[in-house]
Design a protein that fits this description.
The complex is a heterotrimer of chains A (about 325), B (about 270) and C (about 400).
Chain A: H1 3-18, H2 21-43, H3 52-69, H4 73-95, H5 100-120, H6 122-125, E1 131-132, H7 147-170, H8 172-182, H9 184-189, H10 194-220, E2 222-223, H11 230-243, H12 250-266, H13 272-286, H14 290-312
Antiparallel strand pairs in A: 1-2
Helix pairs in contact in A: 1-2, 2-7, 2-10, 2-11, 2-12, 3-4, 3-10, 4-10, 8-10, 11-12
Chain B: H1 2-17, H2 24-42, H3 45-66, H4 76-98, E1 114-116, E2 121-123, H5 124-146, H6 148-158, H7 160-165, H8 170-196, H9 202-217, H10 222-242, H11 250-261
Antiparallel strand pairs in B: 1-2
Chain C: H1 3-19, H2 23-29, E1 33-39, H3 49-62, E2 66-67, E3 70-78, H4 83-97, E4 101-103, H5 108-121, E5 124-127, E6 143-145, H6 150-164, E7 170-176, H7 179-194, E8 198-205, H8 213-221, E9 226-230, H9 234-245, E10 254-259, H10 262-265, H11 270-273, E11 276-280, H12 289-302, H13 308-327, H14 332-339, E12 343-346, E13 349-353, E14 360-361, E15 364-369, E16 382-388
Parallel strand pairs in C: 1-3, 1-4, 4-5, 5-6, 7-8, 7-9, 9-10, 10-11
Antiparallel strand pairs in C: 2-3, 11-15, 12-13, 13-14, 15-16
Helix pairs in contact in C: 3-13, 4-5, 6-7, 13-14
Classes of the chains: A mainly alpha (about 325), B mainly alpha (about 270), C alpha/beta (about 400).
Chain lengths: ~325, ~270, ~400
């Protein structure tokens, strides 16, 4: 077992002792969301500014079915994954031909269109008021209505997602995506249909977002309109960058830092977005690789110090 | 016309510097607040209209010099994170300085009320803003087209290596372009203040619109940005007249459609 | 296992208990009553939250933070003007802090979402927003609506405005496009019919709209005798400003049918307020003994007269405390039962909570703004010209069954 995995397992156990289970659950849900984005952002080099399209669509569809047809939990999750993947396939199909700023803006514009549909379709989504009353059905006698069993459920799904994502990035597909990130022209010259691989990254990322979206809807019992808004899209990008987009664990750490800090600081000072802004600026100016890199640099520094002290001592 | 002004400033920044400036909306808001404060302080709207955007330009200068300068080699993701962080800081700073509650700033007395144009009734101040923004756009355009500095800036959009090979300090060019973009955002904000009033979140709406204008016009295409700004304004007015609920989304629909059909923007060459 | 280690294990166990949701029980032993004020410190209503907090604190401090001889622990959370953040933080306060009484938040849409939390978590919830749903189609046993019914508001505004302007028969409406706007619009049209008002136009605008020129241009083209807005906060401010910029006001009267009063009016210049008629749930010159006392104390503490936000929070807190007093208990069900049918004389005048719908039956006010010259001080915006308390007729009541606990 790797050290990172041990750290994550320890965090899963300790977290609900330190923060409320709802926040703890949200951290891992957001981490799943971040994992999906990072396949695009970190591994393929595509900055999608519209991830909430998939997150929100899945939450709405699965939430609707949970609410009106009382479907099984796993069916709801499966549907969420499918909706996330399908909406990502649609958006990805339209976007993968574009690059750079055009790509970012196109994902953003499509996100706004989905938002508008959710805003206007009040009969289904509740529009501005959100879609409330989403249940957490029992499964095999386990009452997910209680915070802790649901937390355990979310954590298990997070570990599963992490494992799947690890397999994906280490697979040939993952290597090709990284090759596209490094040099798209060369990847193409090697005979890869880069557009298709980028689309695949989209679909997988969308599936993760969809899973996170359904878990989120069940966690709070509501799909708020902002679940499909661009602020959510932005938050997942920023959380991932803070954690470090270059690493598999970056989005996990990012979601931890982002949610925990914003929850705890927001109760202390009303102007907390100011601190968030300062944090962003510091990360960009000094720790381009996010928390992951900051930690790596810190350990390297410690090692050097340790060595030099041995040499002199 | 205001959209064109806002878009032109952002087009300049994205074109020359190739970064997505998420702080553009915040600079717009700073311009508006500076106008209201200076106008109240010195009691002269016109002088304030000159001073306020200069403040925004100075702020832009500082931002470029202290931060953005170090980001040209970084990816769009970090540029975005940085400018977004700046936007958060600026809008929170506005709340700390001017308070969270918005307020109104009236147009100067000569420009209050409306005129009957025959087919419709229109506020005088809005007509003034149209003319003023039009002249500003024209002036900026002439500056870029007819002066040596303008030529260098346009060359900077086309080919950065060439510019530096010619012995021009590319860093100075970037700083100047960012400051000019910030100036345009600031003056757009200052002109808007009497129309929309002052509120800490006022930059956010404008930011979205500015990006749409830039995308529509084609990245780095300044004339395109001007045309796209006009187009968006007209499209929004037409849709609002027939389907009011959709007026805020129409711009994004147009943007998505254009990006899909003509990825280089309506008037893009690249 | 050494001593130190054992102690650590115990400590972890205690922490674990906190995480498991035991604190409600632990806290109950300490006999504190925990009340949550869910107020927006960020987002669209970030300017309102701090004021809500002031009002609620004042009401609690008047009682020395005590009720039923026990101390009250007041906690507050940032609702962020978002349904997601508000429900999350409400739930966290219920599970983690043992809060069983929630007041707020400000936005009616968000309050609707919080109301679902109250229902699920079985905690008492009081709020002030304009939505008809909580005392209507989505009514349930735990949520109470402090603000007047949209019908009361529409009736007060239209009746009394027509009394003052009997010739203004052509109205153009500007309506915020969400549940609150629709319900008030429905009743304004309903009441308008009885006065023979012709609605020459009714445009809906999205929430958070800032560019009103197109709407106002359309309104002007309809050549109305009066323009009435059914929106709130920033939308109302932006709309009123644009209507002034187009030269419609002061030539035509403008009605803000559901306004926060001070908070909105202060954002408009005196010139814009000329010929402005404002329907509101509270204004600080309302002539009741409770309001006089509250305004005096508020001014002593904060210099300025209170706006709607602190007043609503203050009055809601009064209502909740009166519920405790009447129930002689802090048991959730007992307090709910006590609130149902509760009668009290508060800052707005006589109030009664309708047990069948959880709607507060209470007066609503129409304000006429003063021209610049007549203002005695900066916040002297206008005079209350009429008060009305017509309750929602039974046939309109959408809450057919308040339901069980």
């Amino acid at each position: 077992m790797s050290r990172a995995l041990i750290a994550i397992l320890a965090a899963i156990v300790v977290l609900p002792l330190v923060v409320r289970p709802a926040i703890a659950s949200e951290i891992w849900i957001f981490a799943i969301f971040g994992l999906g984005l990072n396949l695009l952002l970190g591994y393929t080099g595509l900055l999608s500014f519209g991830q909430s399209t998939f997150f929100g669509s899945a939450a709405y569809v699965a939430g609707w079915l949970l609410k009106h047809y009382a479907i099984n939990v796993f069916l709801a999750l499966g549907i969420g994954v499918a909706v996330g993947a399908a909406s990502a396939a649609l958006v990805g199909y339209l976007c993968v031909q574009r690059s750079g700023l055009y790509f970012i803006m196109l994902t953003f514009a499509l996100n706004q269109l989905f938002y508008f549909i959710a805003y206007q379709w009040t009969g289904v989504t509740g529009g501005e008021d959100g879609m409330p009353g989403i249940p957490r059905p029992d499964f095999l006698g386990i009452d997910f209505g209680e915070p802790l069993p649901y937390y355990a459920f979310v954590s298990a799904l997070f570990l599963l997602s992490l494992w799947i994502m690890k397999r994906i990035v280490e697979s040939p597909l993952g290597k090709i995506l990284q090759a596209i990130r490094e040099n798209e022209v060369r990847a193409e010259a090697l005979g890869y249909d880069t557009a298709r691989f980028k689309l695949a990254a989209f679909v997988i990322g969308g599936a993760f977002s969809g899973l996170a979206g359904v878990l989120y809807a069940m966690l709070f019992g509501i799909v708020p309109l902002e679940a499909i808004g661009f602020v959510t899209s932005g938050n997942v990008v920023f959380a991932t960058l803070i954690g470090g987009s270059g690493s598999l664990y970056g989005p996990v750490i990012g979601s931890f830092v982002f949610i925990w800090l914003s929850e705890s600081v927001s109760t202390l000072w009303a102007r907390w977005p100011l601190l968030l802004g300062v944090a962003f600026v510091i990360v960009v100016l000094f720790f381009r690789g996010g928390v992951v890199e900051a930690w790596a640099r810190f350990s390297a520094w410690r090692e050097r110090k340790w060595r030099s002290s041995r040499q002199t001592g | 016309m205001l959209y064109a002004l806002m878009g032109l400033g952002l087009a300049l920044i994205t074109g020359v510097l190739n970064i997505p400036n998420f702080a553009h909306g915040a600079l717009f808001a700073v311009g508006a607040y500076l106008l209201a404060s200076t106008a109240n302080l010195i009691g002269n709207f016109w002088l304030a209209l000159v001073v306020a955007p200069l403040g925004a330009a100075l702020l832009g200068l500082a931002i470029e010099y202290l931060g953005i300068r170090r980001l040209y080699a970084a990816g769009h993701d970090y540029q975005l994170l940085f400018t977004f962080g700046l936007a958060l800081i600026l809008s929170e700073a506005i709340i700390l300085v001017w308070g969270p509650v918005g307020y109104s700033h009236l147009p100067p007395p000569v420009l209050r009320g409306g005129v009957d144009l025959g087919f419709t009734f229109y506020p005088k101040y809005r007509l003034f803003v149209m003319v003023a923004a039009g002249l500003l756009v024209l002036a900026t355009w002439l500056f870029l087209e007819k002066t040596r500095y303008g030529a260098i800036m346009r060359a900077g959009i086309e080919n950065k290596e060439m510019v530096s090979l010619l012995g021009i300090d590319i860093h100075k060019l970037f700083t100047a372009a960012f400051a000019l973009g910030a100036y345009l955002a600031g003056i757009a904000g200052a002109l808007t203040a009497p129309i929309r009033g002052l509120s800490p979140g006022m930059g956010v709406d404008m930011l979205g619109i500015a990006f749409v204008v830039v995308a529509l016009g084609g990245l780095g295409n300044l004339l395109g940005a001007i045309a796209a700004g006009l187009l968006i304004g007209v499209a929004q007015a037409v849709v609002a007249a027939h389907w009011t609920e959709a007026s805020s989304v129409v711009i994004y629909a147009v943007m998505a459609a254009v990006l899909l059909v003509r990825p280089q923007g309506l008037f893009g060459i690249r | 296992m050494g001593k130190l280690k054992r102690r650590d294990v115990l400590k972890i166990g205690a922490l674990a208990a906190t995480g498991l949701g035991f604190p409600a029980i632990l806290r109950a032993q300490s006999r504190e009553i925990v009340i949550l004020g869910l107020w927006d410190q960020t987002g669209a209503f970030s300017d309102v939250g701090p004021l809500n907090d002031r009002g609620m604190r004042m009401a609690l401090e008047e009682r020395d933070m005590k009720v039923l001889g026990r101390s009250i622990r007041y906690i507050t959370r940032d609702g962020a003007t978002q349904a997601g953040a508000s429900t999350r933080r409400a739930e966290e306060a219920v599970d983690g802090e043992g809060a069983r009484f929630i007041v707020g938040p400000w936005s009616s849409g968000v309050a609707l979402a919080v109301s679902e939390v109250a229902k699920r978590k079985k905690v008492v919830h009081l709020f002030s927003g304009g939505t008809e749903d909580i005392s209507g189609a989505r009514c349930h046993r735990y949520s109470f609506q402090w603000a007047a019914s949209p019908y009361t508001a529409a009736k007060t505004v239209v009746d009394n405005f027509m009394k003052a302007n009997p010739k203004a028969k052509r109205w153009h409406l500007l309506v915020a496009d969400y549940a609150f706007g629709w319900s008030v619009e429905k009743y304004v049209k309903e009441v308008g019919k009885t006065h023979g008002i012709e609605f020459v136009g009714a445009d809906r605008h999205p929430l958070g709209e800032r560019e009103f020129s197109n709407y106002v241009q359309k309104a002007a083209a309809n050549k109305p005798d009066a323009v009435a807005m059914i929106n709130f906060g920033g939308d109302a401010v932006a709309g009123a400003r644009e209507i002034f910029n187009f030269g419609l006001t002061p030539r035509l009267p403008l009605i803000m049918s559901w306004s926060s009063g001070v908070e909105e009016l202060v954002q408009l210049a005196p010139e814009i307020r000329d010929n402005l008629w404002v329907g509101t749930n509270f204004y600080y010159t309302v002539d009741t003994p409770a309001a006089k006392n509250f305004v005096k104390n508020y001014q002593a503490q904060f210099k300025l007269p209170p706006g709607y936000a602190p007043s609503a929070a203050y009055s809601m807190t009064h209502m909740l405390l009166a519920g405790f007093d009447k129930a002689k208990s802090d048991d959730v069900q007992a307090v709910v039962k006590a609130l149902e049918g509760l009668e009290m004389n508060d800052i707005v005048g006589p109030m009664r909570v309708d047990g069948a719908t959880h709607q507060t039956l209470r007066p609503y006010f129409l304000l006429r703004c003063k021209p610049k010259g007549a203002m005695k001080h900066e916040l002297d915006f206008g005079d209350v010209v009429a008060t009305g308390d017509a309750p929602l007729p039974k046939e309109y009541a959408a809450c057919k069954d308040i339901g069980p606990f």
